[in-house]
Amino acid sequence: MSLDESGRYSQAGRPSGFIGWAVGLYMRWRNADLNAAAIDALVPFPGDRVLEIGCGPGEGLRRLSAIPGIGKLTGIDHSALMLAMAEQRNRPAIQRGTVDLCLAGIGAAPFAERSFDAILAIDCIQYWPDLMGDLSVVRRLLRPGGRVLFGIRGSEADADFSPAKLRQALSTAGFVHVTTERVKTRPTPSTMIIARRPV
């Protein structure tokens, strides 16, 4: 089934219109626990430059911007509606210059090599059209030793995207120290996978 063949997948992958706005509100609730757990696991350091891929309605960026001393935060999403919701959610941080938003998918991310210390992608990798190509972009955007965290809804057996497939893909793409952590989240458990670009 392609994304275009299913209204549910189309709206979840690239929300738009009134239904998309409702999807964004649901995403904010659905991913709240996973966002919190992912940020704790990512352990952002003072001054860290962090990219969130598929930032959606902006809840992850809002949580990150509350960390004392955090560096520049950047959110990208290929849904103009999600960026509008993220802008509304993060207006004070945007006005302070802490948060930037960009309309783009990971394959067209307009950033220089080694631009980020950490990269976060929550509940979106199942919509990436070119997994290996997009992972190579992630690796290029990370500084040596930088870390990436993927949050996947569901457990190992029933996840929206196979954690085992992602672990293998990360290793093939040249990432190291690939680890998995399962976390309790609403409405179902989730899986986090963390990896690093080699030094």
Structure description:
With 199 residues, this protein is of the alpha/beta class. Strand 1 (50-53), helix 4 and strand 2 form a beta-alpha-beta unit. It is built from eight helices and seven strands; from the N terminus they run αααβαβααββαβαββ. The protein has helices at residues 7-13, 17-30, 32-42, 59-65, 80-89, 91-96, 131-141, 163-172; strands at residues 50-53, 73-77, 99-103, 116-122, 142-153, 176-183, 190-196. Helix 3 crosses helix 4. The chain is globular, with a radius of gyration of 15 Å. The protein has a seven-stranded mixed sheet, with helices on both faces. 38% of the residues lie in helices and 24% in strands.
Q: Please, what is the average pLDDT?
A: 89
Give the SSE order as H and E letters.
HHHEHEHHEEHEHEE
Span between termini: 39 Å
What form results from the Cα inertia axes? globular
**Unreliable residue runs:** 1-9
Helix content: 25-40%
